[in-house]
Specification:
The chain is α/β, with parallel strands linked by helices and 268 residues long. It has two domains: 2-167, P-loop containing nucleotide triphosphate hydrolases (Rossmann fold); 185-264. Helix content is 46%, strand content 18%. It is built from nine helices and six strands; from the N terminus they run E-H-E-E-H-E-H-E-H-E-H-H-H-H-H. The protein has helices at residues 18-27, 68-75, 91-107, 130-140, 155-165, 185-200, 203-217, 226-243, 246-263; strands spanning 2-11, 40-49, 52-61, 80-86, 112-118, 144-146. A six-stranded mixed sheet has the order 2-3-1-4-5-6, with helices on both faces. Helix 3 (91-107) links the parallel strand 4 (80-86) and strand 5 (112-118). It is globular. The chain starts with a strand and ends in a 5-residue tail after the last helix.
Length: 268
């Protein structure tokens, strides 16, 4: 049997059900409590397509839009993305159209796309019709699935469809997106986390440290404040010293403190 490895990103606004879809597909479990994904979470599952075993590396991406650097770094090396919307929130479709799809295409122009219209079990709360979802799918030339992480509706079909698409011959390359600068503390936090991940050379390895130190320093990634962010930088500095020279770790801390100053508007 042939073997192929495919990195797939799940992208979309917070609380659309990205984490729930991954957990339902990989672990066959559903939990309706909502916990914000910090940075990225990666899970994997093998899918057999014809005579090929596709190992799908599923990257669950933070759904907050100000974290552009971290998201773009996560996209690098992907074969495709599953764009997730919530049928009970119209704005989640607008976000896919105006933010998530363009951002992904900026880094992975030829990546495969699948649309997941999630929470299809909440019929009485629908704000999006199937015809609107179908129209958006046609704009992107992408298949769409009406899914429910709770009931499992179309979850297997959706991921299997992406696995099959990844077997197509296509020269998929990654591009570096333009730097949009730092104008607030959310973007400063994004820059700090992205810088730390790049320093460890592997975002998947770095993210457990990020989540741990966010918890210890009580950094709220949705609404960071200067004091918590500086404590977070100091905590990452201690991690850096485990892998880098004292000089390199200190330079990293100073650079990250500079991101905070930019986020506060104290430097140009």
């Amino acid at each position: 049997m042939n073997i192929k490895r495919a990195k797939i990103c799940l992208i979309g606004d917070g609380a659309v059900g990205k984490t729930s879809l991954v957990q339902k597909f990989v672990l066959d479990k559903f939990d309706d409590s909502y916990i914000t994904t910090i940075g990225t979470k990666v899970m994997k599952k093998d899918v057999e397509v014809s005579d090929t075993r596709v190992t799908m590396m599923l990257w669950d991406i933070l759904g907050q839009k100000d974290y552009n650097r971290l998201q773009s770094s996560s996209f690098v090396g992907s074969q495709g993305a599953i764009l997730v919307l919530d049928r009970t929130r119209r704005e989640t479709l607008d976000s896919l159209s105006q933010y998530w799809s363009p951002r992904f295409k900026e880094v992975i122009p030829l990546g495969f796309l699948v649309i997941a219209a999630n929470k299809n079990d909440l019929v009485e709360q629908f704000q999006l019709s199937q015809s609107e979802i179908e129209s958006f799918a046609k704009e992107l030339d992408a298949p769409y699935f009406l899914s429910s992480a709770k009931t499992g509706e179309n979850v297997e079909k959706m991921f299997s469809s992406m696995a099959q698409m990844c077997l197509q011959e296509r020269d998929i390359v990654s591009f570096t997106p333009k730097d949009r600068g730092i104008s607030n503390l959310l973007e400063a936090t994004d820059a700090v986390i992205d810088d730390f991940c790049k320093g460890l050379k592997d975002q998947d390895d770095a993210m457990p440290y990020v989540r741990q130190q966010c918890k210890i320093t009580k950094l709220d990634i949705k609404s960071p404040d200067t004091i918590s962010l500086l404590k977070f930088i100091d905590a990452l500095h201690e991690i850096d010293k485990m892998f880098l020279t004292s000089s390199e770790a200190s330079q990293n801390r100073i650079r990250r403190q500079g991101y905070v100053k930019k986020g506060e508007g104290k430097t140009s």
